[in-house]
Amino acid sequence: MTHEEQLHIGWLTADVSRLMRTVFDRRVRTTGLTRPQWLALVRLKRRPGASQSELADMMEIEKAPAGRIFDRMEEKGWIERRADPVDRRVNRIYLTELGEQVHSVIMPISLATVHDALAELPRQDRAELARLLATVKTTLVGLAESDATPEICWPSEPDGAVDEEIQPV
Length: 169
Fold this sequence. Notes:
There is one protein chain. Helix content is 61%, strand content 7%. With 169 residues, the protein is mainly α. The chain has six helices and three strands. The chain has one domain: Winged helix-like DNA-binding domain superfamily/Winged helix DNA-binding domain (Arc Repressor Mutant, subunit A), CATH 1.10.10. The chain has a three-stranded antiparallel β-sheet with strand order 1-3-2. The mean pLDDT is 87.
């Protein structure tokens, strides 16, 4: 696979992800939910009892804005914070019954969005796409969990000189 093809796949997957969120955002807007709220609901449904810090990481936002989102969700009665039994400094977050109901409202919208996005693909291709993406995800999870940072190969200087401390591979 050429470098251009690899970049194309990276851009393509990023664009598909962004467009899925955009379409879902527009569809769920009628419920009054914001993106951070529905994202938190979905993450909590998958990981009940996650800490505020863990949820902030999953949502890819800083801890302070995440805390404000959770404050508003708690005020609405969608979540409850519980002190961690081992470390009282850590809050574990759970969906309340009302939060579960809100989640059940957005799930059909989510399923319809995915169904509509894949409508042009035959059933067999959808299954293959899911299998391939799961394989890529497994690989990326392994890479994300490892401490190994690949050596960076910097391009040479405009005059053709190469930084002596950083040699290309």
